[in-house]
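TL;DR need structure tokens for one chain.
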Amino acid sequence: MADPPGCCRSCATCLLCLYSCQWITAKKEKRRGLRTTKCDCSWFLFLFSVFLFTLVWLYFVIIVLNDFHNFNEFMFKKKKLWLDWSLVLLIATAVLITYSAVLLVLALCLQLCGQPLKLHWLHKALLILTALVVAAAFTGLGIKWAEEWRSARISLQATGPFLHIGIVGGMTLLAWPLASFTYRTRNTGLKVFLLPVYCAVMIALYLAPLGFTSPCIMEENQLPPKPALVGHRGAPMLAPENTLMSLHKAVDCDVQVFETDVMVSADGVPFLMHDEELTRTTNVQAVFPGRAALNSTAFNWTDLQQLDAGSWFLERRPFPTVRSLSADDRYQATKQRIPSLEQALEVAKQSNISIMFDLRPENHSDYQRFVNATLEVILQSGIPLPQVLWLPDGFREQVKQQAPDIQQVYGRKRLQNEKEPLLHVNLPYQDMTSEEIRQYRQDNISVNLYVVNQPWLFSVLWCSGVSSVTTNACQVLKEMKHPIWLLPSSTYLMIWIVVDCASFLAILWAFLLLK
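>> reply
TL;DR here they are.
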């Protein structure tokens, strides 16, 4: 078996060493008569499958980064330990994809050099382990975080055209080692299997755009207005969540609505707090160590005002943006206290922005008292009532009667034969399709979707025509003047044809050149 032109013996020897974990020179390999067996081919196919499996997992990891702060909060509630688990996941995924990619490149280079694919048993064991780890990760995602499958579906609307180009390009490059193997192998059965499979895959890829839809395939003049921004607990990437500092930062980001969570203290004062316990966002364990596990509503307002609601932000750094805060912002963060709803309404009134809130905990025995206390503060604050967006479902009819000008926002889709038409809905972004968003927009129903942090997701929802989005990253989305991409259908069709034709010609060239 002669070495192909341009493949020196030293390179072939090095490749054999890395792939087979044995120091066998190309010359000795020839004398020993080592050849690629059916078993070796099976292991190469397994390697290729594992690489694709980890590549798909990497794609999922990048998609779920939009929602990973929720997972960090969930883990804190369970383990009482704050850690940026997205960093752990990214590092682990990078290790797995790098390992399988390096092995795949080695195998392809060996094939082009005409060397046998003798994968070492250690690599085989590690590949099996990689496949099991990724399979376990997918299983865990499906069980504990099933809504992310819907996120993946939405992501394809943003990445579909680029994935198509990338996959077609990758499969086109694979034609070179495939052609080399086809002309070298004496196994007719393997040829008959591989070539039709490869051709079928390429034909499917060439035709895949026929089944692809994206709201961002439209003419420029059809683009809906940019969605308004709703600050999720303020601007939590720039300041401690649900604090006055966070509210002011959100105002600086040009948000139109401040979204927050309200609880009511033991002595009847509504205040801003998301968690039922105070441990994540205050120093309650240091100030009241014996009461730290109590519900937030068990503390009176005097006790709550003793707590530091900002230093945790600098210590735990819930977002990477904390590292880039100015010295003045860091100082302000350490001075934050739990704000009352009255204080937040005053800032909202002065800044001319709306305020939208949940009232927690919904299952509390004194929930009606919470509603009454909250409504009383709103009515006494002097804020124009249309600037208040009411989310809680409990005792909603009572609120409508006492303050009919408050805007009612519903956390559900409209029902058939709805007695009173919905004007505002607030839903997870996974719960509405582009078609539903367009229909609601035509029916003059305001749609707010949460939580939207990544520009790719914001772009898809922008193209769909959503009214507003709740976000942690108001400082990022504020700067977007246009969706990440917008393609007229004619341009997309031209790109599709050019890519497919170029791929076909490259594959044809590979098989003719290596014949």
